[in-house]
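QA checklist item 7 of 12: single-chain prediction sanity check.
[x] sequence parsed
[x] length recorded as 147
[x] structure emitted
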Amino acid sequence: MENSAFRSAAPTHSVLDRRSGEFAKNRLLNLAFEDGSPDHLREDNTEEPKSVPADVFKQGVQEHAIMLGMLLPEDENFLWIAEESLLAPLPEGWLQLKDEQSGHPYYYNQASGDSSWEHPRDSFYKEIYRQKKARQQEDAFTRTSRL
């Protein structure tokens, strides 16, 4: 879904699974953990998901793009990767938990016992960005060398 435009509807609970940057990160975290636990983020929960204001989501996507290695505004055409990454579900067997001291989310793999501050799929989306960026640079070089 290559798309530089942000979704028009405010995203729901899935965006609360991911954060980067300070301003949007803290606002999104407050929305995600306003009841003191991340239980409402789990897929098996039947409660109505919380929505995030569009401006907070947009800023969160931009800050997440930077965390993925993008240079803004130069890489705005790759914001779709950051958005997709931000909305990516956790892989099977992973849980998002809340660090009691900092209040920040972290990720725990039930099978291996591994934990990480970084979403388990971040490296996948970083690689997609690197490949797309390299392809864009190759295409630009090919176009200029033909002139």
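[x] summary fact logged: The longest helix spans residues 122-146.
[ ] second reviewer sign-off
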